[in-house]
Write a structure and sequence with these properties.
The chain is mostly helical and about 45 residues long. Helices cover about 85% and strands about 0% of the residues. The model has no long low-confidence stretch (mean pLDDT about 75).
Length: about 45
């Protein structure tokens, strides 16, 4: 099923690498925002 989808939506390797790196960057930014949000909550708890 999964391989069939990959063969159906075949992309060149540079496009795959670019999309993967973009997803990694997006996940990292999202993680940073969540981390900062948690730190704010911790600060409020201390105060």
């Amino acid at each position: 099923m999964f391989w069939r989808l990959i063969h159906h939506f075949y992309l060149p390797k540079p496009v795959w690498l670019l999309s993967i790196s973009f997803l990694m960057l997006f996940a990292l930014i999202l993680y940073r925002f969540v981390e900062v949000d948690e730190n704010k909550h911790v600060e409020h708890n201390y105060h």
